[in-house]
Write the structure tokens for this entry.
Amino acid sequence: MMDLTKIRAARPRFKRLRTKLSVLYAGLFVLALVLLAVVAQVMIGNHARDSVRAELTTSGSVYDRLWALRAQSLSSSADVLARDFGFRAAVASGDRPTIASALANLATRASVSAAYVVDNDGQVTGPSGALESAVASFPFVVPEGRNDAVVAVGGDVYRLVLSPVMAPTRIGWVVFAVRLDAAEMRALERLSSIPLIATMMQRDATGHWQATDRSIRSSRAIDALVERSLSGRALATLDLAAGRAFALAKPLAGTGRKPQAAILIRYPLDAALAPYLPLQGGIALAGLVGLLLVLFGSSRLARSIAKPIAALDTAAKALEQGSRVPAIVEGTDEIGRLAASFNRMAAGIVDRENRISHLAFHDPLTSLPNRIYFREALDQAISQVGRHGLAHGGGTVAVLCLDLDRFKGINDTLGHPIGDALLAAVGRRLADVAPDGLVARLGGDEYAIILSGPCEPDRPRALAQALLDALRDPVEAEDHLIATGISIGIAIGPADGDTADELLKNADLALYRAKEDGRGVFRFFEPALDAAARERHQVELDLRDAIRDGQFVLNYQPVFDLKANRIGGFEALLRWHHPTRGLVPPLAFIPIAEETGLIVAIGAWVLHEACREAVHWPDHVRVAVNVSPLQFRNAGFQAIVLQALANSGLSPDRLEIEITESIFLEGEAPVVALLHRLREMGIRVALDDFGTGYSSLSYLRSFPFDKIKIDRSFVTGVACDPSAAAIVRAIVDLATALHMETTAEGVEDIDQLERLRDEGCGNIQGYLFSRPVESQHIAGLLGRVMLKAA
Ligand code: C2E
Ligand code: MG
Ligand code: MG
């Protein structure tokens, strides 16, 4: 079977359209030219043949006449001799010398090769030789009515002419012999107007015809030509050693039926075509010039077609590789229009690509680079420092992580559109302050800046300070002037990390520390932060086990009602019995539980446990449970409280929840709403650690708390520090005015107690009365109703 792939592969392949078109045009032209040449050649050949045929035919006729004339002149010469009286007497008397001299004389005059006399007995008088015997028999064999014939003798051909010698009866014959040799042939040739070649042909012993002078070998074509010529005039084209020739044969009548000799008259094709050479040359030259013109023209045309296509190809390739090179094509034809469409399409693609990549790498809200862009830029900055840092005296990459303080509260209170406007405005301000850094928004209210370049230790610090200063002034967002602030964490690579992840993580740790240190500050990363973070992570893992394994217990600290002079309630305080660390104080794990959200589960357990315990206490004894902000904001909080009350059967008015001011930081309205709902259920609400926040008084306006717990920091100094005493007095007066109860926390000695009682504080809580105790000691405590000193 044929292998098609091989056939296809064998076809010429043109890489360039231009070559393809040029070759196609030139090929078509060459084909037309070849056809033209073939037709011209055939026509020239035909024309040449026709004219040669005519010429040969004419020559043949001329030759026939010449032949006849010659025969006439020979026979009249012979007749003249045969009638000569002296000669007849000499023949009659057999006077051989006279005959011979007369014959020789005649031969010269008539320019024949030899002359003979043959008597009636066949006796020959004349020059002796090979011809003699042929001449002797000639008068007896010559056909009736003819007096000449052509005979072949040896290698030569002779024309014999006969004339009878009468005295008065016939006594013999005069026979002339004319050798038809090369000279005879040349004489014949000279008679023609065209350069004919005449050759004497002779039939050899095998019956084939060949030239007497051996110039032409015998061939079937010649035999056939001579044969056809016997019956009429025939013309043929012969392939001879000397070249092709048109030929005509003239069989010469001999003594027998078949002629022994013939004349071949030929006309070489070269000679026949020679007159046409200038025409052929002209055609060839015109063809060549035409071909050159076509090659030139087609290559120009092909270029004019292929060039714009090549330009389009280049532009398309460039577009494929992401750059935009316009296809420059002139003209308004289809290709010009295609190029214009292509350029418009390319512009559209590049535009869209730019938009897509901008969207992919930028934050739509602030138009700042997003986290993906930031990560890549940081990777690049780090690798550049890695490559050039050491050689150029140590470059650095500083990463500043920034977090807006209290953003969530702003978002919740003023609404998302204003929150968004604030984020955008802050982004602009950051970019203004850090023109030489890459400012990005990583998400939410988190921003980050990369500072890379020469190692100037003060650069990040100066920038961080400038950023803090810039955000100290309120930011305008949708006609609102919003006072905000930022906290900044800084990590500097490669010292603080040689990968983007590590640098970001460490800058984040530093940010965490900045927030812990009171917000509105910047902090550099230190390895200790990392250790603390690891520790936090471990605690987080352990906390998950603690919930599952029941490692929590509640301790209860009595709250003593000074007016009723008895325990009015207990505050439930969480304790963690860690299997290896021992007792972990709440302040060491509650912030972590807050961060990780585990406080929700832990808080639920505390509520259930506290209610379950409190239900066994006397009716007037309440239980106070601390609720952290995250736990409070959790959507299921109200349900959890209800469940704890329902499960335990505790009356709602015996449950008091303690919240701190920080609960309001992230938005006041929803918190207040929930507080009202809890209050409607009968649950009491106490404001814990009062006085430590920034705007405590304003919160007192938002919600009618049942109780204010005066922070231990004021209680500690109440007996000895007049200003602390003044604050306590102010708080108590305020609470009284607002119909709220007060509890003083952390009462450790009698002086404090006395002073608090004097100031009108309603309840006290502290080591003076009792430390937090385990539940089994509650019954005992309830019995101890009186303070010794009171
Ligand atoms: P807090 O609500 O202000 O609780 C009072 C803290 O003061 C308790 O510390 C208590 O042991 C301590 N205290 C009481 N009397 C005195 C005293 O006379 N002198 C001194 N120096 N300290 C006294 P504790 O148990 O370590 O709790 C610390 C904080 O942990 C609590 O402060 C509360 O904010 C939080 N907390 C405790 N248990 C829970 C809980 O179940 N859930 C939540 N969310 N927070 C809790
Ligand atoms: Mg408390
Ligand atoms: Mg407290």
Summary: The longest strand covers residues 566-578. Residues 1-5 have pLDDT under 50 and may be disordered. The chain has three domains: 18-295, 362-525, 556-572+599-783. The radius of gyration is 69 Å.
